[in-house]
Amino acid sequence: MSVVSREAPARRVQLVEVLVFLLILLPSMVLPALGMRPDELRFALVAAAVIAHNVALVSLIAYFVWRSGEGLRSVGWAAARPVREALVGVALFVPFFLAVGMLERLLRQAGFTAPSAPPDYLLPQTAPEQLLALALITAVAVGEETIFRGYLIRRFDAVTGSRATAVVLSTVIFALGHGYQGSLGIVAVGFIGVGFALIYFWRGSLIAPMVMHFLQDVMGLLVAPRFIGG
Q1: Distance of alpha carbon 209 from its chain centroid, rounded?
Q2: Cβ contacts of residue 1 below 8 Å, gap of 6+?
Q3: Alpha carbons within 13 A on the beta-carbon side of 90
Q4: CA angle 122, 181, 170 (to 5 degrees)
């Protein structure tokens, strides 16, 4: 009996580790396994892979903070008044969105390279794809804020002993991860990352940054392409 009681928790921990590992590993293997070329990709497949990737990374973070005894509150998943925090995010989004737009215009004038428009087959076209896009945007907003603001800033702060350095390191990684958006996109995303970090410090919760991130991506993925496409 004692042997079972000692082994059961270890097995559960190992199961969690394996499941999270597979969630991270498998999306990167799907496309090569199917023998698909970039021009054969479809929005649904790409969206599913990105959602799985974000779920996997957040699961891994949840596992880390559980094992360390820190809990999800330590990475920003906390708010005494979540509805109020969400409304703060909505209220801050408009001026923040306008500021990002102004920065992008200045960067274009300065000669920074802008990202090319994504091909139509990587944009949601049908009603089911648009619903999937909302799920994708939600997963990315929650995932990236948890990863880059909640977790990495906390860990870099502990390692370097400097919150400012932690913000810089996390933001650089966040921005470089958007390198496909060109030099303009990298700088703009860096600006967004610093802004979200400051709001996180101010509010003590990731809810407002998550809401702002969600709205930013809604504009980029669902709203802007309709206007650009005429």
Answers
A1: 11
A2: none
A3: 6
A4: 115
Domain ranges of the chain: 11-229
Alpha helix (H) ranges present in the chain? 2-34, 43-67, 82-109, 127-144, 152-160, 163-176, 182-203, 207-218, 224-228
Task: Count the neighbouring beta carbons within 10 Å of the beta carbon of residue 187.
Answer: 18
Neighbours of 29 (CB within 10 A): 11
DSSP state for residue 109 in the 8-state scheme: H
- CA angle 100-133-137, nearest 5°? 45
Tell whether the torsion through CA atoms of 154, 157, 163 and 165 is positive or negative.
negative
- Angle 113-104-145 (CA atoms, 0-180°, nearest 5)? 100
| pLDDT by residue, tens only, the chain of 230 residues | 443 344 445 677 667 766 776 677 666 555 554 545 555 568 888 898 889 889 989 998 998 888 888 899 999 998 889 999 999 999 999 999 999 999 999 999 999 988 767 767 678 888 999 999 999 999 999 999 999 999 999 999 999 999 999 999 999 999 988 887 889 999 999 999 999 999 999 999 999 999 999 999 999 888 766 665 54
Q: What Rg value do the Cα atoms of the chain yield, rounded?
A: 19
Angle at 8 between CA 7 and CA 13, to 5 degrees: 100
Q: Are 228 and 118 in contact (CB under 8 A)?
A: no
